[in-house]
Amino acid sequence: MNVRKKHEKLKTASQAEILRSHQRDIDFVKHLRERVIDVLQILGKRKGLLPFIHSDIPFKLIYFFFTSGMGNQTLGEEYTGIVQANLEAHKVPSLFARVLAVILECFGERALLKLLKRLEVSVNDSCSQLTPAAVTFFNSFISKMYTLIPILILAHKGLFYIFGQYYSLGRRIARIDYAKVYGHRPNDTISWGLRLLGIATLAQCLLKFWQSRNDDDQSQRCLPIDEKHGKPMCQLCLEKMPTTATPCGHLFCWFCLTDWLNAKPQCPLCREHVLPSRIVHVMNL
């Protein structure tokens, strides 16, 4: 992987080129996963390796190890004529920076959510020496972080659409951007379209943030109350205690919410897109 000499000014890759490069890499990773699954199916080994092939992450790690990890361009970078570069230092990123960027892109958000989950369990442990006020404070903080982390990641993507620097938070932390080294540069009109998309994305983040600040009070007011015990009930079955929250802040019982999301990945109340892996078990209701 080569970049210009230090005394020459590097040409920053455009948003469109970076997006096209990553999309081509994602398509190849999916193609690689499908071929591996076909081979395992023929060998009769698919069931034993089901946890391994269930996600794209193992295949991303393998793909980026043999490309970025070994100092080579990815297929997407080759196709668009861009290379990974530390534009501020005018040099090729170190091996450590490239590996760090890949790890953060694959596991960063998941690791943060797992860390919050462990903190939540520790805070609500019966053996905890925290005061009730401290427990309430930490539970409120953790609940807000569950909501804010996806919003921050989305906001960073909006900033990328507008300014064209640092495709992901992982690459920003590792200080890895992209330089254009050969090939035809796309028309500026494409970049303006992406800038408009960035503005819309940031507006969406502001609306999500505003909604998250009001959802706690609204969800408590809207929850049906068990008249006999004076406790809130699941808004779907109206029978069980709500123990599970969506990223948008609405509460349901675990079984109702998981059944709903398996059929339709949307919040039953506000229709916000929700992945089953993003729901959170609430322990302090």
Automatic annotation (TrEMBL):
EC code(s) of this entry: 2.3.2.27
PROSITE patterns the record matches: ZF_RING_1, ZF_RING_2
Keyword Transferase (UniProt): yes
UniProt-recorded Gene Ontology molecular function terms: ubiquitin protein ligase activity; zinc ion binding
Enzyme class: transferase
Keyword field: Membrane, Metal-binding, Peroxisome, Peroxisome biogenesis, Protein transport, Transferase, Transmembrane, Transmembrane helix, Transport, Ubl conjugation pathway, Zinc, Zinc-finger
Entry-linked SMART domains: RING
Every RING-type domain range: 234-271
UniProt main location, coarse: membrane
Transmembrane segments: 148-169
Signal sequence segment: none
Membrane topology: Multi-pass membrane protein
Gene Ontology CC: peroxisomal membrane
Presence of keyword Acetylation: no
InterPro entries: PEX2/10 (IPR025654), Pex_N (IPR006845), Znf_RING (IPR001841), Znf_RING/FYVE/PHD (IPR013083), Znf_RING_CS (IPR017907)
Subcellular location: Peroxisome membrane
Pathway(s) the chain acts in: Protein modification; protein ubiquitination
Catalytic reaction equation(s): S-ubiquitinyl-[E2 ubiquitin-conjugating enzyme]-L-cysteine + [acceptor protein]-L-lysine = [E2 ubiquitin-conjugating enzyme]-L-cysteine + N(6)-ubiquitinyl-[acceptor protein]-L-lysine
GO BP, sorted A to Z: protein import into peroxisome matrix
Family classification: Belongs to the pex2/pex10/pex12 family.
Protein name, entry field: RING-type E3 ubiquitin transferase
Biological source species: Ceratina calcarata
The encoding gene: LOC108632576
